[in-house]
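pls ignore typos typing on phone
zinc ion + seq
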Amino acid sequence: MKERIYTIPVSEAFREDCECPMCILEKRLEDDALKYTLGPSMMEPDSRIETNKKGFCNLHFTKLYNTQENRLPLGLVIDTHLMEQNEILRKMYEKEESNLKKEMETGTLEHIKKGFKNKDASVNFVNCMIDKLNELEKSCTICEKISFNMGKFTDVILYLFFKEPDFKELFVSKKGFCLPHLKMLLEGSLKHLNRKQRSEFVMTLMSMELIHLDRIKEEVNWFTLKFDYKNQDAPWKNSRDAIPRSIEKICGPCDLNR
Ligand SMILES: [Zn+2]
Ligand SMILES: [Zn+2]
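k done
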C-alpha cells in the first residue's frame, strides 16, 4: 500500500466537483508551503539553508508578501537570503575585477596583436553572471516542494487507478484535467506503468480529456453567444463562469479574481 499521507488527499480531491482534481492538490500544497515558510520554517536550520540558497520565484515572493501577515518572518528570510547571495555575487565580481580593468586599458591594436587567443574577460564574466542570475531566478523553495509532492501524488493516482476499482470508477467520472496536469499524468505513465498498463491508462485518460475539452469549449462558445441580443433571454446554462474555468483548464492553478 502506498503511503497514506499521499492516498488520503488524493481520494479527497477526486471526490470534489471541479475541472481538475490535481489543481486542488497543488493549491493545497502551495497553501501549506506558504504557511510553512512564514511559520515553522523559521525555526528549522535546514529550511533556512534552503531558502538562503534558492530563495523564491517571482510568483511565490508575491504570494508570500500578499498574505499580508507575518512580515517579520518574511523579512528575516529575505535578510539572510540576500546576505548569502550578495556575498556570492560580490566574490564573482571581485575575482574578475582586475581582468576587466586590464581589458578596459588594453588598446584595440594591442588586442588584435594578441590574436583573439583568449575570450574577452568581460564576455566570460557576463556569461557567468547570466548563468548565476538565471539559476537564482528559476530556483524556488516552494516550487520545488510542490513539484516533489505532485510527483508523489501522480505516482499514487496511477497506483490507485490499477489497484482500487472504486478509485478507477471515480477517476473516469471526473471532468478531465487541466493541460499541465494532463502532461504530468502522461509523464507519470512513462515512469510508473508497464506497456500494457500505459496503453490502457492513456486511452482512458485521453478519451475523457477530449470530451471535457470539447465541453468547456462549448461552454465558452455559449458565453460569447449570450452577448448576442437574440440570446439575451436564453438561459446561461453552465456558461456564466466558463471564462475562468477555461483559463484554469488551459493553464492549471491560477489566482483569478472570481
Ligand atoms: Zn490541474
Ligand atoms: Zn515558486
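The mean pLDDT is 93. The pocket of zinc ion (ligand 2) is lined by residues 56-57, 59-60, 140, 142-143 (CB under 6 Å). more later
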